[in-house]
Amino acid sequence: MNAAPDFVAIAREGWNGAPPDWVLRLAEECQDTSQRRAAQRIGRSDAAVNGVLRNTYKGSMANLEELVRGALMSETVDCPALGHIGTNTCAAWRAKARNFSGHNRLRVQMFHACKGCPVYRRTTS
Question: Core-most of 37, 66, 100, 120, by most CB within 10 Å?
Answer without folding.
Answer: 66
